[in-house]
């Protein structure tokens, strides 16, 4: 980890977040990357607290090494390090044990060393959309009571940024289960104002009130011709052409599976999904067989619920890999804001899944005696998901 952080030629970006058990941190999140200034290349360390960010630009050698050693000594629970050739993910368990996962990059990444990159990645708080959404006051200042929502928007845009270069221009966006559409509007503004693309977007939600509210805001923003809202279920949603980006953020239970299934059926290039509750697998764990010693976990309601959350999203990620996507499962927002803080980020490659992924998927499904809703929804088009095996489990 230290070598990767001090590799000024290869480091793309590193993020440290979360705190280890029974510890305290001076900052909730730290980002590290190298920037090219007039004075030369510097290690840029940006630390975030609850209200603002603090940036230091350090010379190579002892200043940079000292800063890295200081960061590594702090009790962060998670490190995510992207280099030009691989990704390193370090997680500290509750017992203080480090777990390191390394994965090779699909293709070499050229680091962005421009100094203003961090600013361009975010939607400025003075943007009119925050006032219209009630997050900022009339003077363009974020309301103290809405700062958590503002942070959620920024974290979402940070997750969108790395895959935005996979989107062609003009770019079409569909948000399935958009609700009050905070992130629909944020994505639209980010792609147009910050990335310079020409987006068209549709927000779909079953509630008529959401459609009316969001349509009014789009009119006030002057983008009704490019951003519209429809009252519909996810399964019945109709689009004139397959979208380039599908969002499914906090869709409840199997509504997330319906959204992922629609995206796969549309062969959507990029998918961002933040699941909400996971009742379907929870019910199956209540009634079905559970492997050996795991019965000690599922006998307790709260632990069975958390196990079902992890199992559901692991199976969703595996299924997406099996139907031709490169998948990452990330922390969406800090758990202090919401326990539903997982984000599934998928980019379509059409490459077949590794056989070990397929084998591991079927082993997991068989051992736990569960039938993933997403597999059922996609089985007709994807023989690798069944239907024979799924029928047997049913």
Structure, explained:
The protein is built from 14 helices and 14 strands. The protein has 394 residues and is an alpha/beta fold. It has two domains: 2-104, no CATH class; 122-393, Rossmann fold. A hairpin with a 4-residue loop joins β3 (40-48) and β4 (53-58). The model is unreliable at 117-121 and 387-394 (pLDDT under 50).
How is this structure best summarized?
It is built from 14 helices and 14 strands. It has 394 residues and is of the alpha/beta class.
**Major β-sheet annotation:** 7 strands, antiparallel
Strand order of the largest sheet: 4-3-2-1-5-6-7
* Structural class designation: alpha/beta
CATH 4th-level superfamily of the largest domain: Vaccinia Virus protein VP39
Share in β-strands: 15-25%
The N- and C-terminal alpha carbons lie at a distance of 45 Å
Number of strands: 14
Overall, the morphology is globular
SSE order: HEEEEHEEEHHHEHEHEEHEHHHEEHHH
> Uncertain regions: pLDDT < 50 for 5+ in a row?
117-121, 387-394
> What name is given to the CATH topology of the largest domain?
Rossmann fold
